[in-house]
Structures are given as C-alpha cells and as structure tokens.
C-alpha cells in the first residue's frame, strides 16, 4: 500500500507543479511580449545506499519557453515598438543587461526611454537613450532614433542613437524571476544588425488561451485520478486491517 500512496502522491505533486506553470501562462495572456513557459515531466532515478537503483521518480521541469512570435497589434503610438521576426530589445536592470519583447515604451521624468516597468532601454553603445523634452521621436526599422524638438524645422532633426537589438540563440536564453530573459552565462549579447522592428505596433503574448485552458482541465482530471488512487489504497488498507483484527 505504501508504494501505491507514494507513487500517486508523487504524481499528484507533479500535476500541481505543472498546473502552476499553465496558470501563470493564462495569467499573462494579455501581457505584451510574454513568452509561453513550457512544462514537462522527466524521470529521476532513486539512488540509495542499499540495493540497486531499480526505481525512478518523476519531477516537473520547465526546460524552456515557446519563442514563437505573438500577434502584432497596431496602436499608432510613436513609442510602441515591436520586433518583427526573431530578436529582442535590450534593457538595463539592477542585475545587469536583460532582454524583452515588450515594446510599450515611455519617457520618464529624467528624459530616458524606459519600459513599462521603468527599466532604461539601451542603445548600441550600452547606454540609456535620452529623449529631448517635448521632442517628436521616430524609429527606423533597424532601431535608429531621430527626434525633432518642439518648434524645430525639419532640417533640425537630430539622430539620438540606435536601439540595441540582439538575437542570441534561443537555446542560450534563460527566463528570470522578473520575466526578463538573459543569456545562460550572464554575459551581454552582441547587437545584431539583422534584427528589424516596427513602430506603432506592439506584440501580444504568444500564449494560446484555448490550449492553456484545455491543459488546465486535463491537469485537474489527472489530479482527481491520483487522489482517487490514494483514497482506494486507504480503503483497502482499512479493510485488510479489519479482516486481520477479526481473525485475531
């Protein structure tokens, strides 16, 4: 009986862990640039000091993310940006350089171009981008930033710099607890001139709500099955004890 309970309890625990990942994906269906997190099971050998490693357990793992592109939504806002195809925007965090697909940008009180979380967006020289006061900003497809100050003539347009757009291999990208991505080694990625972007658009989350909902329902059923096994094992044990007591 003990083996049945441990097996079923382990399976129920793995289902709950996977359910947490799916629930997080569902909660971020409306998050700009969000990348769906993947959840899978893998076997782990049980090793002890006695006997041979003939048994295995399972653990839930999050081996990576779905890097497929989300739907592009037109906003018309000059500071809304979206990477077309593969690539990332570079931002500065307290832990160093990180990468995101969320291009809903703004200008903070210090005149810096920042994300909705207040993180400075980086240029190709690794510095935050400064936006002129009341300036009209435009972005080119390769990330170059130009601005025209209030009252300036078209000939007075100035080049502010170029956004750092990167495209490291997807296998080297690791999601942090803050939802941003970093390279596995923690080093800064090099700017990639092949990455392209568009202004006036944002990229929606690439989570499929229907698939996520089906996954949540399937996991709920698996959890109920595991609990039923535990209940049946408990009932069988009680009956066995009752028979042994009556025979005694």
From TrEMBL:
It is found in: Bacterial flagellum basal body. InterPro entries: Flag_bb_rod_N, Flagellar_FlgE/F/G, Flg_bb/hook_C_dom, FlgE/F/G-like, FlgF, LlgE_F_G-like_D1. Residues 5-35 form the Flagellar basal body rod protein N-terminal domain. Keywords: Bacterial flagellum, Cell projection, Cilium, Flagellum. SUPFAM superfamilies: Flagellar hook protein flgE. Residues 199-243 form the Flagellar basal-body/hook protein C-terminal domain. Residues 82-147 form the Flagellar hook protein FlgE/F/G-like D1 domain. It comes from the Bacteria. GO terms for biological process: bacterial-type flagellum-dependent swarming motility. One of its GO terms (cellular component) is bacterial-type flagellum basal body, rod. Pfam families: Flg_bb_rod, Flg_bbr_C, LlgE_F_G_D1. Belongs to the flagella basal body rod proteins family. The basal body constitutes a major portion of the flagellar organelle and consists of five rings (E,L,P,S, and M) mounted on a central rod. The rod consists of about 26 subunits of FlgG in the distal portion, and FlgB, FlgC and FlgF are thought to build up the proximal portion of the rod with about 6 subunits each. This is Flagellar basal-body rod protein FlgF.
């Amino acid at each position: 009986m003990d083996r049945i309970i441990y097996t079923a309890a382990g399976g129920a625990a793995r289902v709950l862990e996977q359910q947490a990942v799916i629930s997080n994906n569902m909660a971020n269906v409306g998050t700009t640039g969000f990348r769906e997190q993947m959840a899978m099971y893998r076997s782990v050998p049980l090793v002890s000091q006695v006997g041979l490693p003939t048994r295995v357990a399972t653990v839930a793992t999050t081996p990576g993310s779905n890097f497929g592109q989300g739907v592009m939504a037109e906003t018309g806002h000059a500071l809304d940006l979206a990477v077309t195809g593969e690539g990332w925007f570079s931002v500065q965090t307290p832990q160093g350089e990180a990468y995101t697909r969320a291009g809903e940008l703004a200008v903070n009180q210090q005149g810096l171009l920042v994300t909705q979380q207040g993180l400075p967006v980086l240029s190709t020289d690794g510095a935050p981008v400064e936006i002129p006061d009341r300036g009209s900003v435009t972005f080119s497809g390769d990330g170059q930033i130009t601005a025209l100050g209030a009252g300036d003539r078209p000939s007075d347009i100035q080049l502010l710099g170029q956004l750092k757009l990167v495209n490291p291999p997807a296998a080297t990208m690791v999601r942090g607890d803050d939802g941003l991505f970093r390279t596995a080694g923690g080093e800064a990625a090099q700017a990639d001139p092949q990455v392209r972007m568009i202004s006036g658009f944002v990229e929606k989350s690439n989570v499929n709500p229907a698939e996520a909902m089906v996954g949540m329902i399937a996991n709920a059923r698996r959890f109920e099955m595991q609990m039923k096994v535990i209940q049946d094992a408990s009932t069988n044990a009680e009956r066995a004890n009752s028979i042994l007591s009556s025979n005694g």
